[in-house]
Amino acid sequence: MFSFNIHNHSFSHVHFIGIGGISMSGLAEILLENGYRVSGSDMKSSNILKKLESKGAVINIGHNRDNIGDADLVVYTDAISKDNPELLEAYEKNITTVDRGTFLGQLMRLYKNSIAVTGTHGKTTTTGMMSVIFNDSHLDPTILLGGELDQIGGNVRIGNGEVLLTEACEYKGNILKFYATIGVILNIDEDHLDYYQDLNHIIQTFSDFVKLISEDGYIVANSDDKNVMKAIKNSKCNIITFGVKDDAIYRATDITFNDRGLPSFKLVVNNDKTYEVTLGALGIHNVYNALAAIATAHICGVSMDSIIDSIVKYTGTHRRLEYKGNLRGATIIDDYAHHPTEVKATLAALKNSSNGKIICAFQPHTYTRTKALLNEFADSFSDADKVIIADIYAAREQDTGVIHSRDLANEIVKNGVDAEYLGTFEEIGDYIRNNASEGDIIVTMGAGDIYIVGEMLLGNK
Prior knowledge:
With 461 residues, the chain is an alpha/beta fold.
């Protein structure tokens, strides 16, 4: 059992408010494996919660003051409101409370090497690629993944080595709470504008993250992304770059795609050694993700032969270009894309892998993002033959009536793409059943619960 403490206080019973979240559940499992008492609450049951219960966690469905019990540390997610009854109970009892980001940051300090994978897009995929590589290596890492990966049996791997690999979300400046020895910056784009003032605010936050890494640490950076390069310009640590342009230390050249849309490329390291790399994940965006994963694993001491043998085994985490099944010869795919850049990349990857129509059922995620990036979203569906827009998934927000899914559908139509708004999953499912043909790709897309449409089409709902 490692000694976990915050502000020089040690703890034995940790309570998680919102324990069913993909990150929170992973943190809880790490504590369980290290002998801590763990309890938690969430609004509904799930397979993740059942797994935690089987490992000894006490789980409550619904939030209630009594759920706290004798906990001496309470961890809460960004989604928890300030008037949450369990949070109020902790305050009144003077129990130490920390947000998830702070807790993860303190956990990172317990490892000799902590790798934080950050950026606006691709965090889960890149961390997933690294997970497969590290899982096959001598490093025996502990891994916290923002999705479920079959090769590690879910969203967390408990290792006995000196490496912690985790995603690092920039929302609300959470990356500034982390203690990484290796920071990976995949890209920087405009997002989370319910918190950030503008793109410059986002770049500055990444710049502040870079400054937290010690001089003997590393930043692995996408040198093709001008915003990333702005963020790292005043760094004092070691800089390792990746990209497809001539100045990248880890560079992909001669990129080709097979008849299934899977990429292969020549990897050039330091403009010297070359290697042939084949991926098991679709799309040019995954070439960039793979370069980040390869560079990070390589500086951690994994041999290039081992890296190349392992990375092809990565075929995706759940909800990232995930194959769900077949509807009368049409392929059903589910993807988590919820930002214009991600939408464009996903559809381009699918276009490259099929000669049939692409029918995209998209669920916008949050009113703030949809309104702020409306024009960018409208431009991102050009590779789809038909776009169906579902109701906006509110997540942490309230509907103020300022933006509606119809607005997005209308803007997409103005750009020459066939699009319409359908309000319910049932209507979307009926449209797809009546219009999908053999050889088509049906993609459900978004960070909410749009995946249910695919399950309905396959008869699983």
